[in-house]
Amino acid sequence: MVAGQRNTADGVNVDVSMKIEIWSDVACPWCFIGKRRFESALENFEHKDGVEVQWRSYQLDPSLPEQYDGSETEYLSQMKGMPEAQVRQMFDHVKTQAAGEGLAYDFDKVVVANSFTAHRFMHLAKEHGKMDAAKEALLSGHFEHGENIGDIDYLVRTGVVLGLDEAEVRGALEGDKYAAEVRADIAEARALGVTGVPFFVLDRKYGISGAQPAEVFAQALRQAWGERSPLTVLSGTNDDGATCGPEGCN
Asked: 241: domain range?
């Protein structure tokens, strides 16, 4: 178990008994859905005040340029070798699942861009205790509002909204600050055998792959609480446990 304390939003120290690491990419549609489902399970978990959540970086396509000159449909069609009509059908399924979690995806607005700078921004936000808020803002910006997650000006504006210093954010992103931290997260995911995201690691005991239903997360939280064992990937039986990998999203 992870020992120590953390500060809650109101400044009260609570014992941290379990750490949950979530590998995900800002450019992953199932990662936002998985975030909502996990949050639902955690909200109803009786030991939620003893849980520390940490976001870890992962890139589905590190080879992307800063911005792809084309639509999300065109990009996935090219990457997966699928007809555009089939890609749009896949989007419809994802949009339906997202809507079930209160998310309004608009794939026609999505700006296809490399997510590396966004991950560096996330690590900067972590230094200020704003990592979860940054993750929420970037996922919503990307999938619901058509923002360019590779654009430094957008990331700076987002940082200011979160209460970060504009000059600090711009200085970090215009340089290469936090690049090593992003690469370390990706390397650790590789070492753990992560091949798709979202991927949830509970106290380094259990791994959960995909945007599983809230009930699966709830069961895993109960099972992992107070237990010690080697990391075991828990397989869900529901088709909603979908992931995105280097070859695209399921």
From this structure: 5-249
166: tokens are 């504009």
Give the strand pairing for 206-209 and 199-202: antiparallel
Taking phi over 0 as left and psi of -120 to 50 as alpha, with beta for the rest, 248 belongs to left
**CATH for 85:** 3.40.30.10
Q: Domain total for the chain?
A: 1
Q: pLDDT in tens for each of the 250 residues of the chain?
A: 333 444 443 334 445 589 999 999 999 999 999 999 999 999 999 999 999 999 999 999 999 988 788 999 999 999 889 999 999 999 999 999 999 999 999 999 999 999 999 999 999 999 999 999 999 999 999 999 999 999 999 999 999 999 999 999 999 999 999 999 999 999 999 999 999 999 999 999 899 999 999 999 999 999 998 675 445 667 665 656 788 877 777 7
